[in-house]
Write a structure and sequence with these properties.
2 copies of one chain form a homodimer. By secondary structure, chain A is mainly α. Chain A has a single domain, classed as Arc Repressor Mutant, subunit A. Chain A has 5 helices and 2 strands. The structure holds FE2/S2 (inorganic) cluster (2 copies). The structure holds a DNA duplex.
DNA sequence: CCTAAATAGTACCAATTCAGTACAGTATTA
DNA sequence: TAATACTGTACTGAATTGGTACTATTTAGG
């Protein structure tokens, strides 16, 4: 199947939940709101944080909040945060791994076009659109 | 990672190879042309055949050929042939499985928009474009 | 009619990836 | 200083994927 990770799906749910957060919202509360298990939320937040999509605040009254306005955060951002660079195949420029057939392959480089088209599509939908 | 199966990648290579085939081209020859192992090509062809993307001809002088002009077959077609319906999440309409959180989920149905955008993007690139 | 070429269907296995969990550590506030 | 909540890392069982094997069926040609 051609699909995103379940975790990416959850991540969008989390992001949408954070839209309604004025102050920092702790993982525990996000878990309650969304029905996603607490440990899973916890894991997700780390990825979202590293990608700069949310801000964190430790200690009592700590928690997470969106790092940018909801209409500036795209689905592409979330996918990249959770799954790494978007590379439909290993032949694509920014892929982490390398294609074994690259040397004698007939479609060399052509996937870049496809990849770009998909990324563009994913950049057009924002967290605000998902609310 | 957000990516298509390796087999889908191979499938495009196979399809591109078939563009230059006037008569039916056997799996074995496709394997030689592309460098993809024969058994793998064999498996692929079954999927492509079931999806109606290629025609087959058995017996001596048999083989495969494209079922439509190269500029009418899209990347979306190939992905669907190899991986089944394109459903970025299980919350998407035409998905085969069902989302566990559906009942109380805040982004219910919103993924349909994303899915549609991606499919549209994938339909814009054809086999001819990959040649 | 027989044989070789080639597809068609099914089932299997090893390796990877994924989803979910656990736990010890650190920062912050009251 | 105690309670809260994030941070980092690492582990596991389950699912998926990539690749292979084998048998059956169809077709062309001698
Ligand atoms: S299959 Fe990777 S370069 Fe062509
Ligand atoms: S996560 Fe599937 S319906 Fe929302």
């Amino acid at each position: 199947m051609f699909k995103v990770n379940k975790l990416t799906d959850y991540a969008t749910v989390v992001m949408v939940d954070l839209v309604s957060a004025d102050l920092a919202r702790p993982s525990q509360k996000i878990a309650n709101n969304t029905g996603i298990p607490y440990p899973t939320v916890n894991k997700l937040m780390k990825d979202l944080l590293h990608a700069g999509l949310v801000r964190s605040h430790r200690g009592i009254n700590g928690g997470y909040s969106l790092a940018s306005p909801a209409n500036k955060i795209t689905i592409a951002d979330i996918i990249q945060a959770v799954e790494g660079p978007i590379a439909l195949t290993s032949c694509v420029n920014n892929s982490l791994d390398k294609c074994t057939y690259e040397d004698f392959c007939a479609v060399q480089g052509r996937w870049n076009r496809v990849n770009k088209a998909v990324v563009t599509a994913l950049k057009k939908v924002t967290v605000a659109d998902m609310t």
